[in-house]
Amino acid sequence: MSKYVKILLQAIALLSITLGVFSAQAMAKTNIQYEVINGDTLVISGNGETEETIKYGKEVKKSQIKKLIIKEGITKITPLGIGKFESVREVVLPDSLTEIGDTTFAGCYKLKKVRFGKGLQVIGYSAFASCISLEEIDIPDSVVEISESVFASCHKLKKITLPERLKEWNFNTFRDCPALETIVNNSKIPCYMPWYKKYVTWRVDGKKTKTIPAGKTGTSTRKKLSIQYDLRGGQETKKLPRTYRFGDSVTLPETVKRKGYVFMGWSDKMYADVEKVESGQKKAKFYATWYKYKVESKKTGTATVSFDSSQAKVLLEAHAIRYSVYKDMSLCDEKYCNKSKGRVRIKHLEPGKTYYFEICGVRDPDHPFEKWRAKRKVSICG
């Protein structure tokens, strides 16, 4: 056998072994199964890492999954592998899990409860970022690495317990967490908290500090701020909230009235429809939005909607009218008007029938019409 033939056969053998290894690795990574329980609980089981995308069947409706359970045997989870379940409320993780990959649960805005396993070591970049319903996190002592921005923009997060084995502190871990009140630092390293200097004061053993020492618990006091209103000719029918704590979210009541006008919501200087003081908001001034608004039917099978939003602090350039014979506005039709004020005539309605009408305004005609107001009940002229 020639030298070149031997080399060729050796190369083929090596290639076969290599392909076999790759095949075995692929099988290991795809050895993942799932089960749906009662339509709202997803159970993922298997061995190793969930690096390859799980192909879910029609029985998995992501918007309906409220609980996610990862079973023993899984060692790493990633968003690419398990997918995104933004409506999930509870996550249960196994002791076998050693790593939560980057952005795995980021944006799960309804997530309230996370039960970690005892073997977790690494929590990846932004793994729980923007989980705006999370209020408390207890990280197990097995964790040695918490990457940057893991809990960034968790606006309701109030308490966190740091693990004993943590090797490095990154203050961006809690960036944009204005409601944070308690940090239990079980680690052996100090934790610097530079955020919101004018609005949050941290204390350890009663003394002001910007650093939570190793083995200590820090608590914060959040500044009390005022809420201002410009009622723009209206008046309160019930007392409006006048103060809030920095980091709190406060819903703005609609307890105002103005003779001859319809209240269309609150705005600030930039946004046309503001419903609350946001967590972390430093200044809060709101303006009442009033419309002249009328729906009438004077011609057979026709209704006319008149509106004028020109007195709004933020001018709305486009409007839509929706109408239906059903009070819940099901099976409704819509008519559009790209003006801040005008008259919309709706024809071909059924004479003698009762219809319901609502109006919605937006700053840009390309924006969706979502917040409908001022429902009116009108009998169509026959």
What does this entry look like structurally?
It is a single chain. By secondary structure, this protein is mainly beta. The chain has 2 domains: 30-175, Ribonuclease Inhibitor (Leucine-rich repeat, LRR (right-handed beta-alpha superhelix), Alpha-Beta Horseshoe), CATH 3.80.10; 226-379, Immunoglobulin-like (Sandwich). 8% of the residues lie in helices and 36% in strands. The chain has 2 helices and 33 strands. The protein has helices at residues 3-29, 79-82; strands at residues 32-37, 41-46, 48-50, 67-70, 74-77, 90-92, 99-100, 113-115, 122-123, 136-138, 145-146, 159-162, 182-185, 191-192, 200-204, 207-209, 211-212, 217-222, 224-226, 228-230, 235-236, 243-245, 250-251, 256-257, 262-267, 276-277, 285-296, 303-308, 318-324, 333-337, 341-346, 354-362, 373-379. The strands form 9 sheets. It has a 6-stranded mixed sheet, with no helix packed on it. The protein has a 5-stranded mixed sheet with strand order 1-2-4-6-8, with no helix packed on it. A hairpin with a 3-residue loop joins strand 1 and strand 2. The radius of gyration is 29 Å and the shape is flat. The termini are far apart. Residues 3-30 have low confidence and may be disordered.
SSE blueprint and pairings:
Layout: H1 3-29, E1 32-37, E2 41-46, E3 48-50, E4 67-70, E5 74-77, H2 79-82, E6 90-92, E7 99-100, E8 113-115, E9 122-123, E10 136-138, E11 145-146, E12 159-162, E13 182-185, E14 191-192, E15 200-204, E16 207-209, E17 211-212, E18 217-222, E19 224-226, E20 228-230, E21 235-236, E22 243-245, E23 250-251, E24 256-257, E25 262-267, E26 276-277, E27 285-296, E28 303-308, E29 318-324, E30 333-337, E31 341-346, E32 354-362, E33 373-379
